[in-house]
């Protein structure tokens, strides 16, 4: 019964994405915005809100958080999510199709149209075009980490009926080129830009530049283990700097505690579980945090009154309401923001770069400072008081004293992203070759025998089926992508 409710919720969310009204919701080259007089800021704002709702909704958050095992269903607990479910790799066709549609219509097509309108305006609105290009690069990067090879070079082009599916490496290279183009296009001398409809930075171009650099670094860090030539580019970026450099640079969307503007994660629990969170803390996260006496524990999870401490549950096992923690209502509140990029994420990447010597000499002292600062910023972001956050971060081990410093950075990075769905899942996949990722996940109870979950399968739609350039053989959810070693 719960699944019926949730699929209905997904349909409701999907309908909210459909304001641009296109007949073929997966037809990625049908422009849903035929009125060329639309202000680019309106398309930008709609695309960004649609993107945030996708990431925090049942179409993306639930499958990747559960199949990626950063949260748990609670098995057959009567108020848990239930099994079999996404945790056992049963991914709804709605999730695949709605995610594809969002990347290629409500988000991607609107951003592409906004770029076109901004660049054809008189005078040209270069800043608006650049703002849209950065978000389009974020969207396309995410789409390829979800599906693998996807349309990019011929996507969002109404003159091409059957766009080719670009190799993942080429998509990521294209995203980097798009970011570079945006950085060159910013024009501080021009008053034209998206400000009042800019839900990220209110038109602060310096913050947009820092976001662009950080997103570019994220892409390079996803590519570098498969393509070691990216080491030089990473080193160049670290030398140049100008990344997200404070919590005030965080790229996020703030939800509101008013009708129609609440976080979808909150709405899910409010509408279908009497306000009780469906999801439980998994052992991978909770055990790691408990062993550190991590002050974020009460911010991430709700401990039963009867429990002596914070205890998670094995993925797929039935949770005990007197023992196992649920995801905290603080984390799934009506106003909890959807985070696209955080300051602590940037710090974790920089710590990893120093620890691995990617384009710079190995420097474990610098890496230690950076990863401690990342954890401190994570604590502050989730509401831990400043003194406690500082004390906890300072107590973390010096990386020169641990056997696997890079793995420790990866683990802290993954824990910080435990409620960020696709971001946590991609962090896990890039953390090491198959069988050596951090953490060392095993098959959830009830999952089919075989490899771990690795991706969404392509939607089974006529739009893809009739495209001669689309993959013809089924690519299974267990098949690794180019970047995933």
From TrEMBL:
Question: Matching InterPro entries, A to Z?
Answer: SusD-like_2 (IPR041662), TPR-like_helical_dom_sf (IPR011990)
Give the superkingdom in one word: Bacteria
What is the protein name for this chain?
Answer: SusD-like starch-binding protein associating with outer membrane
